[in-house]
Amino acid sequence: MAYSFDFSSLADYGPVLAKGVAITVELIVVGGALGVGLGIACAWAKALGPRWLRPIVSAYVELIRNTPFLIQLFFIFFGLPAIGVGLTEMQAAILAMVINLGAYACEIIRAGIEATPRGQFEAGASLAMSPIQTFRHVVLVPALQKIWPALTSQIVIVMFGSAVCSQISVEELTFAANFIQSRTFRAFESYIVATVLYLLLAVLLRQVMRGLGLFLFPRRRKTT
Amino acid sequence: MSLITITEVRKSFGQNEVLKGINLDVAAGEVIAIIGKSGSGKSTLLRCINGLETINHGSITVAGAQLAPDEVHLRALRLKVGMIFQGFNLFPHLTAGRNVMLSPMVVKKVSQKEAEAEARVRLEQVGLAHKFDAYPDELSGGQQQRVAIARALAMKPLALLCDEITSALDPELVNEVLAVVKKLAEEGMTLLMVTHEMRFAREVCDRVVFMHQGRVHEIGPPEEVFANPQTAELRQFLGQS
Amino acid sequence: MTQFTTWDIVSNLLLAARWTVLLSILAFIGGGVVGLVVLYCRIARKVWLQRAANLYIELFQGTPLLMQLFLIFFGLPLMGLDVSPWAAAFVSLTLWTSAFLAEIWRGCVESIPKGQWEASSSLAMSFFEQLRYVVLPQALRIAVPPTVGFSVQVVKGTALTSIIGFVELSKASTIITNATFEPFTVYGFAALIYFVLCWPLSKSSQLLERKLNVAHHHH
After folding, report:
1. A77-84 long-range CB contacts below 8 Å, 24 or more apart?
2. Would you kindly state where each structural domain of chain C is located, as residue ranges?
3. Which of B80, B163, C53, C205 is found 20 to 30 A from A53 (Cα to Cα)?
4. Quick one: average pLDDT of C158-169?
């Protein structure tokens, strides 16, 4: 029996989808920015930070990278209130994304830092900069530039991962698709639309990251 | 009758025509050196003969096997003509002996025993019988290139194409490879070699082809070409090298 | 109300973890087999095959795994196939895995120098013989660490199948939480079990990678 597609019954749900897209964008913008920030801090700690801090950061990174995002999210949303940390759905989702991206970004950025020639650190030191100043002004930007494509891919992956935030009732894109299919009984169409929207969001996100890269690393504009 | 017939061959990379109508006949047993500046198309010509590049126009035939882009024709052609590369291109995951044995076994379905016996003969021929079980990264560049020659010979080709086979070698290793090539020439192997070794070309080759800007600019026996260049381009080229 | 001991929680989680392990293994094997086919298409010398393989890879890498799960779970019944959550989970994880593995392996194949292709061409080998005897044996060595590394993603990916109702470790965690009202303990232990499954894989991938970088010999 051939299935006849019917996207028309989805037409009324444009606003629902739009809201879903908006919340997914909010999740990835806030989560992405804070996550990369955390990643930079952890990468610094792991590569250059005080010795006592390194095993702690390593443990965090390993723990996050070896457990599913869904479980991290559930632990934060359902588990933390048991020890008195109650978060709204949105707060829990963003926290989970920050913690998740932070761990991956840490490893990616650290690789960039470790690829920095020794001479750069020595040059910074010889100019009387503190280690932190050397890191901030000499090491970090070229390191980020080197790993920007890998970081971009990771942020896209985290955005795809954010689909499971629907499971704690964050009203993002997947939640919208679930909602629409429960109303229209057009599951296949609903998820096709959501999938295409994710595809477009990923393309857009890559473009934004590319643009951000051109802004942050202007020297590159001349060569490419 | 000639073994290799190259007729009106043209080859372009995009807008850039690197071979502009090449005609060349090579008789069985002939040894030919192709000389010329880089960019003159000499390596491209060699690669066309082995079907590593497709041609845009003209034809290439080796002992009745015609160059055509499909796998059946290419296979027939490559069974008749072997190739040695500047960068050796030995298979790093196989020993010297296995490098030589591989193609006879998988392409010609020769038994392992026969292939091994043949490989030992070929390695002996290039003076490396004792390196049968050595891996490529345990061999010097010169030794690797000699294994590559043995590997090509094991397919019993009618002709060998040598693409600057000593250019990647340290100077002290060049002679051991050239000695092997010279011996092959004396044994009657048909050889087409792109080379910068002018002294070797003069001593060993029957004819020298000077290529310039995608054309055969001058051709003749080495004593004529080297002693009495007809064109300003060849005079300039010989003066430089 | 029934009292649950910590051991009750852990033992039930471990029982459910068997399904996580089984699904991971099957999806990894299935993904490997399909991935080889996709890899072959991706590097074959037919432009339309390459394009098809590219599209396949980009679709599965460019969309959320959860959407793929939903589309297969809700989509296959529309074609008249009645699928259980278990079958939908297996199929979608297999397809998803195959796209990633094909892409990882393509990178390995492409890192083999062009000269290896040319040398084997000049020895009259066919495309298949070149792959079989010259390129894949070399590519395989460098493919092992990233392949093992990706297996971690597969194990973690199985958690999503809980959302379509397949009872594995994550779904069991939710069920047990609903019975015990101890989310902190339950999800904590679930995370620990995932960690125990994944960390050895991550670590061995790193060690293999390091070994490969140190080793220059091929025997």
Report:
1. A77/A168, A78/A168, A78/C177, A78/C183, A78/C184, A78/C187, A79/C183, A79/C184, A79/C186, A79/C187, A79/C188, A80/C184, A81/C183, A82/C182, A82/C183, A82/C184, A83/C184
2. 6-214
3. C205
4. 94
